[in-house]
Fold:
Amino acid sequence: MIRPTLFFALVATLAVVSCKPSVPSRYIQPDDMEDLLVDYHIAQAMAEQGMKNQDERNYDQTLYFASVLEKHGVTKADFDSSLVYYYVRADRFADIYRNVAERLSHQALELGASEGEVNRFANLSSSGDTINVWAGHLSAILLPYPPYHLFSFEQKADTSFRKSDAFMFILNSDFMYQSGMRSAEACISIRYDNDTVVSRTTGMSSTGINQIRVPALDGHMAREIRGYVYLTPEKETSPSMKMMVIRNIQLIKFRKKEEPKTTVVEDSLKTKKLE
Structure:
């Protein structure tokens, strides 16, 4: 029989282990922070729209961001200090931003999705000559230190793949850096039925739509597609916030259109010889 003192000690221990440490009241709480970050990214997207120079974009970003802070009843100092608090607690921050990224992916107004080629492929079905075959997560958050600096994927061919298919890897990049240089790289690598491997990479350093095209390998079918998004790690840890959000990930497959077959009709008329 367990003694009462031992029983209460076990209960207290389990309570401590099962509960996550609470966020100090001087910081924005996790649910509120999630809501604020969703609005923050939507505001940044609105500031990016239209033909503007960098000064105009910066002005609009500041204006829209001020509106977001006012809506949530917090100051910029509160926001900055809370970001730093969550940033240095990577596991908790990753959980918050995973929810933020998923919510943004399902917003009617998606960041950048109304412009560029990405809009043409946003609602592709699972049939047709041009389809979105992406089977992984739609979004991810990267931080500039291991293991949070790398998003990798691997995808096998499905029944829709055909010989001479071409591919395009698309994603939205969104950097949130308080200081320092932004540097990331995306790569897609395709292995074909003859074991030929074709790889393409692109660098990223700003918010926007990124695309990697892989032309068709005539007469051969893709068997496996691999890739990654890599955020360059910092050599030294820093309290200033530095992170990258990738969203609206798509893998578009283009089926090569067959050339119409032409048939040669021979003239069956015979020329008679004149005598």
About this structure: The longest helix spans residues 30-48.
